[in-house]
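Hypothesis: this fold can be encoded by more than one sequence.
Test: take the structure tokens below, design a sequence, compare later.
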């Protein structure tokens, strides 16, 4: 490379770094680079469409629809004891990968981590489709969850290539990939597939769609390959700087703690036993050690303490996401189970009962994102949804014990269903509060809140439900049995038989002296009452958490003023262009310490009328 070329490249690289520095103050960039009009290309919308399409198989089908029939699936496979892990494994996998995917996307750009996630999700879905036991389902959900952490990198990719005013709209389109049509009819669809076909088709359909999304993304999504502007480092140098120790500590601590939470309250593992307390305390201590390591030891922490120091702009929203995931995610499997335990075993009716919850979730997650800019004041919209989450989720307890079917169908629909829109708002608000060079990391850590909240919520709520039911079922069933003159010596058989009779297991309660059809129905009512009491306590447990999220939301920073026409970066125009940008730095190092001219030529540095640093498009 000639000396003049090297000098020219160095000048342009310095200019590019000025632009990146300009974008690292998102508030200044939004206000000072605000053109009168802006147009988003069809190529950009196509990329967003395929990114949204990838959400449906990995989350809408592979998690939400699957979770709606998890109890009959695990029953068919012969092991319901690990039902918490059969759904919670997704949360653990995604919590770990979120933290890793963010920094990787800041190194390699968003494209390759996203494509890796879509490919890995396909592998996980294939494992789920072929599962012959519950353990294989847990492995499948772990893989799908880990892949989802990379797929969710689009929460960073979409905002940076859309005008600020359209960021919530872009997030709404991504959430539509989950909701339309999958999450909106998940329980109805899951039960219909289970009853009239084979539950494996949930995964089979997801595989087909994920492959389409993978191919579509590969041919339409070409973001900037070096978001940090680190032209002086090789890819391998940057990979070596990633804090893998932090990821390992966090994943190990979270998994260990969840083992204790899921064991707690079982006959073999009382809450005060060493087998329960040890994993909880060891896991919690490991998580604390992770934060200490990140704050004082890691040279480039994967969970930067600097982010959490910004309470109004980041930490408050992290709490909102964690709690909303903790309360909302488990409902995908808990509500169908509640309909089944308390009201009916008819799968079609269970699907119909779920529609208010599913449809309102769709209306809010999609409509809320599409209308966010038009309604205005993002913070107050967030607070409104947080109030609804706290009030209606807690109020669901009032619909139970005695069990009111119609009230139970409608009340939670306006509370726990708001999980997606709350996450959407948090992502959109964070994207306008953090430096762009840290956007991938910030979104990844926020995603960790989503994944870990999902896993922790599943563990806590299932444990509360199961232990409370075991506590209440005896006092409900025994009086009915004795009042009808049944032999006290048969009570253990009667209690177990009544539980399975409620689930319409053949031959339940047979062979017990004095048993009649009328007594069987009375025992069914008693079991359903015990379930109602247990679910009541479970919903009451959510109240302090949802109140905490509401308080955190009150302290969040409003970003409405920054929802301008400013666009951070536009995509490359073609696959060839993208690869030239991505590879030229490595080739240029053979001739000089500066990047090749090809890279800078493709970066398209142009002047803007504001007089501020040039905007790199």
């Amino acid at each position: 490379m000639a000396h003049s070329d090297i000098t020219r490249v160095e000048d342009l690289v310095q200019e590019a770094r000025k632009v990146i520095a300009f974008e690292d103050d998102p508030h200044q960039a939004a206000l000072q680079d605000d053109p009168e009009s802006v147009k988003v290309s069809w190529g950009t919308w196509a990329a967003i469409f395929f990114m949204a399409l990838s959400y449906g198989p990995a989350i809408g089908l592979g998690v939400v629809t699957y979770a709606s029939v998890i109890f009959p699936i695990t029953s068919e496979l012969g092991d319901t004891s690990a039902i918490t892990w059969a759904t919670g494994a997704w949360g653990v996998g995604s919590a770990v990968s979120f933290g890793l995917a963010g920094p990787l996307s800041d190194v390699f750009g968003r494209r390759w981590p996203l494509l890796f996630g879509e490919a890995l999700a396909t592998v996980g879905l294939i494992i789920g489709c072929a599962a012959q036991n519950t353990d294989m389902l847990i492995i499948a959900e772990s893989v799908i969850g880990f892949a989802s952490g990379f797929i969710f990198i689009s929460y960073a990719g979409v905002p940076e290539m859309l005008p600020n005013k359209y960021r919530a709209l872009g997030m709404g389109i991504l959430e539509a990939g989950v909701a339309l049509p999958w999450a909106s009819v998940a329980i109805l669809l899951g039960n219909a597939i289970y009853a009239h076909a084979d539950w494996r088709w949930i995964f089979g359909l997801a595989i087909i769609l994920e492959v389409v999304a993978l191919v579509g993304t590969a041919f339409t999504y070409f973001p900037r390959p070096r978001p940090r502007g680190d032209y002086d480092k090789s890819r391998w140098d940057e990979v070596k700087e990633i804090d893998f120790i932090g990821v390992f500590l966090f994943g190990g601590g979270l998994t260990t703690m969840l083992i204790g939470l899921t064991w707690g309250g079982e006959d073999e593992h009382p809450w005060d036993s060493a087998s329960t307390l040890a994993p909880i305390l060891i896991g919690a201590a490991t998580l604390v050690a992770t934060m200490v390591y990140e704050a004082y030891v890691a040279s480039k922490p994967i969970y930067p303490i600097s982010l959490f120091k910004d309470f109004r702009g980041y930490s408050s929203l992290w709490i909102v996401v964690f709690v909303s995931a903790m309360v909302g995610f488990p409902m995908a499997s808990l509500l169908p189970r509640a309909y089944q335990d308390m009201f009916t075993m008819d799968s079609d009716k269970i699907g119909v009962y779920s529609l208010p919850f599913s449809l309102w979730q769709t209306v809010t997650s999609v409509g809320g994102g599409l209308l966010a800019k038009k309604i205005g004041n993002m913070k107050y919209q967030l607070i409104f949804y947080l109030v609804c989450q706290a009030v209606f989720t807690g109020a669901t307890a009032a619909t139970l014990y005695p069990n009111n079917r119609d009230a139970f169908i409608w009340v939670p629909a306006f509370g726990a269903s708001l999980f997606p829109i709350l996450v959407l708002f948090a992502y959109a608000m964070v994207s306008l509060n953090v430096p762009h060079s840290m956007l991938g990391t910030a979104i990844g850590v926020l995603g960790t809140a989503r994944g870990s909240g999902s896993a922790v919520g599943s563990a806590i709520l299932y444990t509360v439900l199961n232990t409370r039911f075991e506590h209440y079922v005896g006092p409900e069933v025994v009086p009915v049995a004795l009042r009808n003159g049944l032999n006290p010596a048969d009570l253990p058989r009667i209690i177990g038989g009544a539980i399975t009779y409620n689930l319409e297991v053949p031959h339940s309660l047979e062979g017990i002296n004095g048993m009649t059809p009328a007594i069987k129905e009375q025992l069914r009512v008693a079991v359903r009452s015990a379930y109602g009491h247990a679910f009541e306590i479970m919903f009451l447990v959510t109240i302090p958490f949802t109140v905490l999220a509401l308080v955190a939301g009150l302290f969040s920073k409003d970003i409405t003023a920054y929802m301008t026409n400013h666009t951070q970066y536009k995509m490359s125009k073609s696959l060839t262009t993208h690869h030239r940008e991505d590879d030229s730095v490595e080739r240029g190092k053979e001739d000089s310490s500066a990047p090749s001219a090809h890279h800078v030529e493709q970066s398209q540095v142009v002047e803007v009328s504001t007089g501020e640093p040039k905007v790199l498009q």
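The chain has two domains: 42-242+302-470+530-556, 572-617. DSSP finds 27 helices and two strands in the chain.
Hypothesis status: open.
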